[in-house]
Amino acid sequence: MRIPILKLHNYLLISIQIELDDQTAIQFQEDLLHKIHETGATGVVIDLTSVDVIDSFIAKVLGDVVSMSNLMGAKVVLTGIQPAVAMTLIDLGIHLKDVPTALNLEQGLIKLRQTLEE
Amino acid sequence: MNSQSCVNIEKEWDIVSARQLGRNLARKLGFGTVDQARIATAISELARNIYLYAGSGEIYFDIVEDHPKKGIRIRAIDQGQGIEDIGKVMKDGYSTSGGLGAGLPGVKRLMDEFHISSVPGAGTEVEVVKWLR
Ligand SMILES: Nc1ncnc2c1ncn2[C@@H]1O[C@H](COP(=O)(O)OP(=O)(O)OP(=O)(O)O)[C@@H](O)[C@H]1O
Ligand SMILES: [Mg+2]
């Protein structure tokens, strides 16, 4: 299964609406990096509103995709992390400290615009 | 729902099936959304460890009662390579696969009870319980 990546001006928007198995997560990582390269996008929002489990593997993939995108010159914001997911991540000892986050997609876009204009 | 359920872990997708089954059981038992997420995440970690390090194994689910307490018990059992040094693998950040090393210590924090036993060369068994509050 593949996660659709939408382009909006200079941004890429992703809303993860399916159950994330390992293969899908890795495929998404690859697809996103190619899409950034292809489109020259400067910002990416990954919306996690519908994701109800983020375990250590998926957290690693998400953290890595943020660092990899940064290396390529695109800023990534994660949005919509559910309260229950935030709590389990902390129990796992995963703080995603260097990862920009926002409450929802709209706030994510605002945050991107601010960071990119700085 | 008093009978025991089991998911065989053989392929990657079984990790997803196991955590979905566990979450449904937890919901039916009356766990709230946060505990459901904790239980599903713990199962995901245990199932992935079986898949990655043992190749295959089973995850058993059942309901435990310790009057007046009620909870869900999950047992992850494999006949894989086993673990030499349990103390080491329970440390945050220890991984032999380039992972975050968050799995086992994380599962211990996510659940109320945690027991691990392992025989090098013979296999590993992890048993965890979450009590209903
Ligand atoms: N069922 C098992 N059989 C054999 N070795 C295991 C098993 N489960 C865990 N281990 C060993 O314990 C180590 C720590 O496991 P843990 O789940 O904490 O971290 P990880 O799997 O390496 O990374 P993460 O879970 O964060 O992705 C593993 O790297 C592995 O060497
Ligand atoms: Mg693990």
Automatic annotation (TrEMBL), chain A:
CDD domains: STAS_RsbR_RsbS_like. PROSITE patterns: STAS (PS50801). Signal peptide: none annotated. InterPro entries: Bact_StressResp_Reg (IPR051932), STAS_dom (IPR002645), STAS_dom_sf (IPR036513). Residues 1-118 form the STAS domain. It comes from the Bacteria. Transmembrane segments: none annotated. Coiled coil: none annotated. Pfam families: STAS. This is RsbT antagonist protein RsbS. It comes from Melghiribacillus thermohalophilus.
TrEMBL record, chain B:
Residues 35-128 form the Histidine kinase/HSP90-like ATPase domain. Gene3D superfamilies: Histidine kinase-like ATPase, C-terminal domain. Pfam families: HATPase_c. One of its GO terms (molecular function) is kinase activity. InterPro entries: HATPase_C_sf (IPR036890), HATPase_dom (IPR003594). Keywords: Kinase, Transferase. This is Serine/threonine-protein kinase RsbT. It comes from Melghiribacillus thermohalophilus.
